[in-house]
Fold each of these.
Amino acid sequence: MQHSDVKEIAIVSPVAHGQSKDSAKWDVVNGMKVAVAFVNTDIEQARKKVLGVTDVSCFERYGVKGPQASQWLASRGITIPVNPNTWTYCDQKTLVLRLGSSEFLIEDQLDGSACNKLASDTARVAGVYKVPRADAAFILSGNEVLNLFSELCSLDLREKSLGDKDVVMTQVAGISATVLRQTIGNEPVYRVWCDGTYGSYLWEVLTEIAVELGGGAVGIAKY
């Protein structure tokens, strides 16, 4: 995770406006100004166990699609999920989501480097098309997550219904979103992506319910 002085010119997280009343502590991660903390460590750790909401829009992403996209990614060392609407790890530092049969979302986790390498490859290849990504992205943690989803999502996202490597496209609080289950540091969490223009709205909805259930906002520094 690359930090720098917040005085440098940086993109602001698409979620930032929704955090304006949250007393966030800010830093720049991967060139984006993002909330790294909200309250002290003990409180945020307690929130994570109940229902924590974390903005990870600063994770690097790369989108690509086309009939030759899977071959192109594989030739660059990216592990490809075999089936549509599934995901996998590439070297444990990068998520690879297969959205349908021929579109992919690549997302570096902290300390990942695949996206920058892919972006630096500017050679045109027939059947391979870059897909611009401007996602708002979240980590939802804690034992009340499914209660939150029961209020906001019509799909059953329990473990027996959402497989370990499944990717689902659904509606969360009326917003089109991509959802999967992931394990981070031995902790089961849910990941949610949506169009960045809805980021602040979704943050406000998620954190409002989280507070009602005994959790709340958690800074990215906890990951």
Amino acid sequence: MHIHSDDSNEVDAERRYNRVLSTIYHQTSPMQRPGVTPEKIYLSLVAHGSYDRAGVKASLQATLDNDDAIAYEDEDGQLRFALLTEDSVDRFVAEYPEVAAHETIREFRGGYMTHVWSVSDEKVLEAVQMALDNDDCLAFGGGVRPKHVAMHCELQPGSLRDRLLTLTADGHLVKVWGVDVDQPGYPARRGYLPAGHPDATPPYTLSV
């Protein structure tokens, strides 16, 4: 079996990232517990797959950094991952009621500070531009992430995630890859740029 190495040009970080998200999704179906352990993810993608453990671990961390997933320790001290989607969060909280107080969950549900939809699209887009103007963004033209936009508006990163995705679907923003120089190893991260921005061009632009 060929094992991808993070030091090899063969590694497709975006594909691996999406495989991690897909694995979390399939391992937390309604017929299973709402949170999946890292070991089950490693079993699927490393032992039975074609990726190395370090690469999958990096992608798992990226899902948290990108607000695509949440990690929580259950009553036995076992770390569990769940997607940040409405159905997944509802099941996660039903299984582990104490997780409802988690900051990321509160932000996602719009119960922390300003409600997610109470700020206009124009204000969010202004915050995106302000973040870019202040260099609060990813390196190499990678655009802004929710945490960057949150510095310039009333919403928190977890709430901004949905707003940025909606603005992308509506054609106001585009998703791009950039580099997070604030993190060890300078990992690739997904960011957002205004539509028509000179850096919002292939091969770095992602499909909606």
Amino acid sequence: MNISTNFKSTAKMLIAALTLSAVMISCTKNDEYYQQPISGLSVIHASPTTELLDFYVDNTKANTADFAYTNKIDYLNLYSGNRRLSISKKGTTTSVISEMFNLDPQFGYSLFVIDRFEAAKFLLLKDDLTAPAAGKARVRFVNLSPDAAALNLNIAGKDTDLFTNKLFKEYSTFEPIDAADNVTFNVKGADGTVETKIENVKIESGKIYTIWVKGLKAATDDKKLGVAVFTHK
């Protein structure tokens, strides 16, 4: 099983041509070379817990550093097809979650570890890494707060919400927004009340982002309701 971490840089070059492809060159017994299809996989620890995790692809551990709540493992190169993806508590080999996924060639994916830890599960999303138009970025919204009601995402100063009515585990498509240096994203309830927000986010032209709601509405510590942003490219 081969795991490498250059899918993201490869994607940067190929997205410009509206293609997500990376190849692993292998040699047959007859010394004939062929292209091994590759998929990209990033992994996000979105389960509100103090547990540190290890992430495995088939039987190979993929993380070298502690994998803590809100941490992200950047795009890994994986052979396409059926892959067993698993997490365990740090330093153990007993899986907390273990599930087979069929990864399509030449696509990127985001795998979230979600829900309270005692009910932890995976949420796999396919990443549309089509390049934004000039002066634009593209964003996706995901509600990963287990005890929050349906949520909307709003850009401060805009009359219309960017995304609406996303329940736990629900997510939007990627949509274009204007690039800007200091953006405030408000996460609002159905009645328009701002439940949480993230300020001073730099949205760069040509970039692709996921904005996700984290934590628990009932919590008051560092696992409380919040919002986070990560960049795909």
